[in-house]
Amino acid sequence: CVMAPSTVAGCLKAHIITVMSANDGAVIKALGADAASEIIETESLCFNCHKTGVTRLLLTRIPNFREVIVASFSCPHCGFENRTVDPAGTVKDKGNLFVLDVRSKRDLNRRILHPDHSEIRIPSLDSSFPISTGSVTTVEGAITHIINNLNELQPERKVADPKQAELIDEFIEKLKKLLTVETHFTLELDDPSGNGYIENLRAPLNDPQLKYTQYVRTPEQNEKLGYQAEEQTEPVQEDASNLKDTVSVFQVQCPNCHSNCPTNMKIVGMFFSVILFFCILSEFPLLPLWINK
């Protein structure tokens, strides 16, 4: 039986999480010189030519972060290759947001892990880039990947919509200018799964250029991660026009004997105004109270 690469990685990930839970996380070792001996190979289906390729899986730990599964697929028949990185643990209770102040080319070499369904934002360009495939790269690599994706269909755009292609070319030049770090810019990594990561160059100390916060996911984000969103029950609001035909009853304290008694209230429309009609029912009946509204 030949499975798809994503299926192989998913099955192995579920098995690893179970074993880690039973062994207090001792299954995955840090990446070392003997890492090649820990690579797992299995046959899997090539999505490009539908023949049999090879998927290689490596379980490792990112220093000062957490465990990940690095998957690499290659097909000897058509040459198709694909690489992904998935967290080896479960989805966290909260999402995380990293905000990096890029000040020098050294910051471009910071490692960054952006899982599936995460998003990279560059506020200075008023732009955001959803991530469909998780990977481990650098800040420079992430921006370069965005540039390559935008360039991929530019020849077709220049034929179909020259104006749009021209705007995209201008935007690509702005992205390339960021890589020169002539001016500081901010890069944000928003990951609802809580498994995203931007390298802290001063770990284990705090990095003044890197801010990290956690947040509660929205129902829409839970749905994207495969969680069933809780049903939102909105309070029922009664139409004010229907109140004119109903009598509301509630408990109040009798002003005469100070005991609890029911009070009837009804909105009555008159030709000159709208009034509230109160009637307090107790052992000592009182006259109805008319309040002009």
Automatic annotation (TrEMBL):
<keyword id="KW-1133">Transmembrane helix</keyword>
<keyword id="KW-0863">Zinc-finger</keyword>
<keyword id="KW-0472">Membrane</keyword>
<protein>
    <recommendedName>
        <fullName>Zinc finger ZPR1-type domain-containing protein</fullName>
    </recommendedName>
</protein>
<dbReference type="InterPro" id="IPR056180">
    <property type="entry name" value="ZPR1_jr_dom"/>
</dbReference>
<dbReference type="Pfam" id="PF22794">
    <property type="entry name" value="jr-ZPR1"/>
</dbReference>
<dbReference type="InterPro" id="IPR042452">
    <property type="entry name" value="ZPR1_Znf1/2"/>
</dbReference>
<keyword id="KW-0479">Metal-binding</keyword>
<dbReference type="InterPro" id="IPR040141">
    <property type="entry name" value="ZPR1"/>
</dbReference>
<feature type="domain" description="Zinc finger ZPR1-type">
    <location>
        <begin position="44"/>
        <end position="200"/>
    </location>
</feature>
<keyword id="KW-0862">Zinc</keyword>
<keyword id="KW-0812">Transmembrane</keyword>
<dbReference type="GO" id="GO:0008270">
    <property type="term" value="F:zinc ion binding"/>
</dbReference>
<feature type="transmembrane region" description="Helical">
    <location>
        <begin position="267"/>
        <end position="291"/>
    </location>
</feature>
<dbReference type="GO" id="GO:0005634">
    <property type="term" value="C:nucleus"/>
</dbReference>
<comment type="similarity">
    <text>Belongs to the ZPR1 family.</text>
</comment>
<dbReference type="InterPro" id="IPR004457">
    <property type="entry name" value="Znf_ZPR1"/>
</dbReference>
<dbReference type="InterPro" id="IPR042451">
    <property type="entry name" value="ZPR1_A/B_dom"/>
</dbReference>
<dbReference type="Pfam" id="PF03367">
    <property type="entry name" value="Zn_ribbon_ZPR1"/>
</dbReference>
